[in-house]
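Schema walk-through. Below, the input block comes first and the output block second. Nothing else is stored per chain. Lengths vary across the set, and this one has 446 residues.
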Amino acid sequence: MLKKNSNIIMAGFAITLITGIFISSPNLYAKETLQQTQASKLDSYIKFTQILNLIETQYVDEVNTSGLVNKALKGLMTNLDAHSAYMDAKSFSDLDVQTKGEFGGLGIVVGMRNGALTVIAPISDTPADKAGVKAGDIILKIDKQATIGMTIDEAVKLMRGKPKTPIQLTLIRKGEAKPILAKIIRDIIKIESVRTKTIESDILYIHVSSFDAKVTKEVKKSLIAHPKAKGLILDLRNNPGGLLNQAVGLLDLFVDDGVLVSQKGRNKRDNSVFKANKKNTVNASIPMVVLVNGGSASASEIVSGTLQDIGRAIIVGKKTFGKGSVQVVIPIGPEEGVKLTIARYYLPSGRTIQNKGVTPDIIVQPDTVKQEDNTTVSIKEKDLKKHLEVELDKIDNGTVKDNNLTKEKEDKTIITQERLYKDAQLKSATDIIKVLIITSKQKEVK
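--- output ---
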């Protein structure tokens, strides 16, 4: 019995000793793991160099080493995700073209969705928009070149060109039995990122088409210019995003406290939390409705998602695109660089929009609103003669409006009832904002 117990004790001691070795020598383990990782990396570098040397010396045609490396880098970055990219000298020099507010091309923002080149959004009043290109369209061909296996940068280079030159896009659209051919004439794209109008005098409508460097300043200007507005509709439909600081700045105009958005990455230095600053707030109480759709991406998803999370606005429309990753541009020498995904955005509730998007509080399909036709003259037979006599008097007195079959000049500062009924989403947003205005009045009375 004693022998059996002593064996147990010794066994226990042995286990304790071994455990002690592992616990007391973590550096040994870490060092060995580090050595293995470094050896694996070295093997990978050697493999790449060997294959590169093999191509240089034995490929049927003479090749340029610099060109080979550039192609390898492009493939490497493309396989990370749809937004990371290697930028050669031309791509690097064109980097800030879009954020300057003027560039040449078609006026569409594209991205990769399930491996297909997809239209995130057409920009309002651009050649692509006028040609009928819609958010969600898959670009099958650019002129005669198929886009299968093409990177975003390659596609953008093909679509950009000299103003007034033609281009054809072959599109696949959900619900259409056959591909659609869109014939477009390239033009200089001048983006008016913020447009302000009013609805029924007391509702302010602000359309933000992209988050360029002027957005926060322009929206603030609109708010200050309309101090008597009782409600606000912020239209972010087909807004493909843009600068993060502008999304944060826009939110700060309406929110006076708390976290607006955060980003988290692999490295702690890439983690950031953006909070509201009360001194930047213009109106933290005005009732708000935000319009979004499948073309709303990135910065517009941050704005709509944050306002939804904190209960600051009602979100109306269709589910957004779902682009919630952070890219930085890192120069590689004076003329080249890489665009690398380093983090993801997180809304105040902790949720991410990457591949998920923002689901509206109230889903409304894009459509027209049916309305009763009140234009038909309805007269009983016995009153017909009397009615006609009245109408003749109007003509004699010169009170009939002379239309001349010409279109009246549109007031670009207001949204008419006719426009509202042509846009079911905007009509719904208007109805909702009216309810919010009434509710806010009732709260004031109490």
